[in-house]
Amino acid sequence: MSWLGLLSQLMAIVMALVMAPLLSGWVNQWRARLQNKSAPGLLQPYRVLHKLFNKESVLAEHASALFRMVPYIVFGCMLLASAIIPTLSTDLPLSPAADAIALVGLFALARVFISLAAMDVGTAFGSLGARREMLVGFLAEPALLMVLFCASMISRSTSLTTIVETLAHRELAIYPSLLVAGVAFAMVSLAENARVPVDNPDTHLELTMIHEAMILEYSGRHLALLEWAASLKLFAYSCIGLALFFPWGVAEANAPLALLLALPVLIIKLAIGGVFLALIETLSAKMRIFRVPEFLGTAFLLAVIGLLVNILLGVG
């Protein structure tokens, strides 16, 4: 394990912690601008986190120890997921311990715990949100796996670092399978991050909210950790999309100069992706919850088509 690998791993973790709220603020700012509204400050998520961390946590009367533990578990899962995704460099000491399948497992683990916590208190809104969240996860996780398998067939590996190294250093070519899988990944990403058209992160309407319904009983530092974890999840999904479909600019092992250049490249790619996300949310309308299975079923079908195209064309 080289010192450069430890440095790149540490930089990846720090970048995730610092840039995740900034990415959420960037998306919210552009979303407000595109809707001709007064845009919040770019640093607003940091101010919200600071305010919540300085508030007292109020717990429900019948809350168990699980309810107190879940914010830390969910935050840890999202931070670990962000750490194993090659954002700045492919020389990550944690990458051999977790591949694409383990990454999906981390997202699933966080979903299970936050759903259990939502049902732990026994409120109607929490149970409603937990059931909807598990429905979304049940449909989104297979589609995400198919997208990752589509990319892994090209590199012959489920390791994210190997996938990035293979795709970034091949001759520039258009893979039909990745084009189809990219559309599927965008649909899954919108659903997993509670974005329009599947969910609305700003809504508090009882009949439409999914993610917000599960965290209504949290306050103080617990709510701050969950909000930070939601930003980390958006950051992680953004980095997965960049790693699979726009891997150029990620540094290789033993390349300190490339590691420094990878930072501004990542910031530019995230900024462009945030604008596109805000544009998609502005042009889309919130769909009914009964249409979500059709939406995610279409994403799964597109991912499977991409996988079949890989097999038929013999790519790899």
Could you describe the 3D structure shown?
46% of the residues are buried. The protein has helices at 3-34, 44-53, 65-84, 100-120, 124-155, 160-168, 176-192, 211-214, 220-245, 256-283, 292-313. Helix 1 packs across helix 9 (220-245), helix 4 (100-120) packs antiparallel against helix 5 and helix 5 (124-155) packs across helix 6 (160-168). It starts with a helix and ends with a helix. It has 316 residues and is mostly helical. It has 11 helices and no strands. The radius of gyration is 19 Å and the shape is globular.
Key structural traits:
11 helices; 0% strand; globular
Short description:
This protein is an all-alpha fold and 316 residues long. It is 70% helix and 0% strand.
Unreliably modeled segments: none
Content-based structural category: mainly alpha
Give the overall shape, derived from the CA principal axes: globular
Helix and strand element order: HHHHHHHHHHH
pLDDT averaged residue by residue: 89
Distance between the termini: 29 Å
- Number of strand segments: 0
- How many alpha or pi helices? 11
Percent of sequence in beta strands: under 5%
Tell me the radius of gyration.
Answer: 19 Å
> What does the largest sheet look like?
none
Classify the helix fraction into a percent range.
55-70%
